[in-house]
Amino acid sequence: MFWLQTKKTMIVVVGAFLNALAINLFLIPANVYSSGFTGIAQLLSKVLTEQTPINVSMGLLLLLLNIPVAILGWFKVGKSFTIYSFLSVILSSAFLELIPITQVSTDILLNAVFGGVLLAIGVGITLKWGASTGGLDIVAMVLSRMKDKPIGTYMFTLNGIIILTAGFLYGWEKALYTIVSLYASTRVIDAIHTRHAKLTAMIITKKANELKTAIHSQLVRGITMIPAKGGFSNEERDIMMIVITRYELFDLERIIKEIDPNAFTNIIQTTGIYGFFRRE
User: pTM value?
Assistant: First the structure.
């Protein structure tokens, strides 16, 4: 358990470092904006610096914006997820202050694409290990659970506000390149993690009771048990079917590896659910 938590912390550190590199080396020098709270902090910092005597760094704004979201996530999403997510925010804020803003390329398209890809790698590996980079991920999860609608709807709406604001204030060319960066980010995150908000796990195991107890101790999800028999061995087994959110995938994988490393698990993309699905 200690080694697992250490690896998870290291992944969060690497993810935060990559996020800061993408922003300070590619996006900020090109005036291309990131998504989520990172983009909001980037936009606010620029507006305050240029339009008012107040000079607030992007790293500090990112941290301040995420404090109320972390409190919300603590009560509505889960303590472990929120702790690692807020750790990611703190580290990203620190790296943004430590890494100097440097123009690597004068080509705005290269900056938009490479910045978006590098940012997505940081976000993707963080998500894959059961955390997030905070901000809109947590907000979208809470909203999705309240309304039971796709998270992508909220993400698209909030990111659209950033793009429109950037277009009105600094020209539509910057806004269009921001869309390019967001598209590159989305594609890479989909490749590393998963674009589906909900997933169905089909677990074939000989240790169904132990697995059921372990899963219920950490995930509040219903499990359907289906008797099965091996087609080649004729051995009796159980199929456990469970629908989870993408943020619970890491915890489920860890539980299966601990209880039954020989279990066969098929993760299926779930595009829709009809019936009861726990939202809180």
Answer: 0.72
